[in-house]
């Protein structure tokens, strides 16, 4: 798969706008500000394919990118406390419709911030993935923000925190130095 030949396809803000699933889809999922856009830009070797912001909650639509015969799907981040209740409800409905509309999902890249224990929203998403049987990989982001001893401590804690889940792989990723980018690409290629 030539990751360098990826283009923005379309955005959808309501369930009724979602097109029928006609091709394989690889999904990027995670809480607000976990680094989904940074991972997307690294995987596709582009600086601004997905918009990166230091402000949480910037992605409010489901964004589709196309590479060869695969759609890459950037979901809005969950768990942003400053969203209105109506916006949270819209997001929940959009996510529910996306996952329950019989889509051809080949893989979910579930992003977690390596610096912190998974949030309640992260656990809800992991439970959902576990219950559906959709193949998923956990990408631990922001690994560069930990020193060597902090990273090692978190690796031990993560094993315990995720003991009830069976991701296909856990990949450490840094947008700063590219750690894990090739491993993520290999995983995507294997499932597509």
* Largest sheet: number of strands, sense, barrel closure: 7 strands, mixed
The helix-and-strand class reads alpha/beta
Strand content: 15-25%
What gap, in angstroms, lies between the N and C termini? 9 Å
Choose one word for the global shape.
Answer: globular
- The helix/strand series, from N terminus to C terminus, equals EEHEEHEHEHEH
List the strand order in the largest sheet.
1-3-4-2-5-6-7
> What is the count of helical runs?
5
Helix content: 25-40%
The whole-number mean of residue pLDDT values reads 88
Low-confidence stretches: 53-58
The gyration radius over C-alpha positions equals 16 Å
Q: Would you count the extended β strands for me?
A: 7
List the defining traits of the structure above:
192 residues; alpha/beta; 7-stranded mixed beta sheet; 32% helix; globular
Account of the protein in words:
This protein has helices at about 35-45, 85-100, 120-130, 150-160, 180-190; strands spanning about 5-10, 25-30, 60-65, 70-75, 105-115, 135-140, 170. It is α/β, with parallel strands linked by helices. It has a seven-stranded mixed beta sheet with strand order 1-3-4-2-5-6-7, with helices on both faces. The protein is built from five helices and seven strands, in the order ββαββαβαβαβα.
